[in-house]
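TODO from last week: model GDSL esterase/lipase.
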Amino acid sequence: MAHPFSTKPFPSPISFAILILALLISNKHAYGCYKSIISFGDSLADTGNLLHIRQPNKPLESGRWPYGETFFHFPTGRFSDGRLVVDFIAQSLGLPFLEPFIGGKNANLSSRNFSKGVNFAVAGATALDISFLEKYGIFNSQTNVSLGTQLDWFKEFFATFCNTNPDCKIFLQTSLIIVGEIGGNEYNYAFMQGTDRKVIESFVSAIISNISFTVQELVKLGASTVMVPGNLPIGCLPCYLSYYKTSDGEEYDPKTGCLNWLNRFSEYHNDLLQMELNRIRGLYPHATFIYGDYYNAAMRLYPSPNKFGFTNTLRACCGVGGPYNYNASAMCSTPPATSCNDPSRYVSWDGLHLTEAAYRWIAQGLLEGPYTIPHIRTCSSKVYSLQCPCIYYRRETTYPPKVVINRIQTIFARFFWGDEMGQS
């Protein structure tokens, strides 16, 4: 049985040409040294904001054991067993882990030191305002924080910061701004609440538009370098594999066990995001916009897990029941869910979020591999090194030819012959 996304509309010839140009375009050399990080997003980047937002009578999963067991050895509010991608990026820059803004806000914002970075990401946050989703009967039980809320927080923070730091513009210009991953929760809530798939597909353009608006607002305020990560391959996540489990073997990728149609949806979001980033590059040629290819950086773990030290790719480390060790009624940190003995051998931590080991490989792919457009490179050979004071970026660098060719072949197949040409 074919799913709606197997016949989804794909970009027009003009948009198709723009996407190809986004992969192949070359610009002048540009080098930069980032002295701080400013992060926006959801649970893939939240280092404790939702933990501070939640009322004491509504305990948060990530505020309980075994979250944080691997690296911090106690729950920090991160939705993983340890560090996130943003943590590895901070370490590669020689910077401290990002302070959550809400923790600082509640403890007197003006008294906190955010000179090395600040994190506005909130687990459960959406790119769109919650009122947009509620019109479709979709509800967010985690938080009402959106990307717009986070942008307002940043403006509040920046105004206060500038009152005591006359060089605040330089601070922003020398910061690596990371906007996302964001937008994935719209899809999570909608898919898991049974929303019609065509309706969900209609959200994509609005989500991309809100991300673009935020990025442009940050540049207008003085940001010089913005990284915008794409969506993960949701067809490989245990929560989706459990919810959409089917006896139709053709729905699954035989090399990975992931659901093809859900991964094609993630790619659709990511393709439109890249086209929008290419458009705003033309509007702000003085700024650098980096696409973070979370999808392919993560996707390489599934067909060859042993190469990366994994033995389990589709089962959650922390959970209970079923072929994917996931039960929405017994989430990680809630009995009877239990944690595996060695999270480093698992890609998935709790069914929706990844392990520190998986995030390390994604960060490595971004910082040392080919999974950014344009390519960024660290002055250290290891993403977890504390000896690197900055990341240097080169705007003229793109994916290696092999990666570009493979991507173009996939796009051509979808554009001219439909998704069936690229399902494997």
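Done. The chain has one domain: 4-295+388-422.
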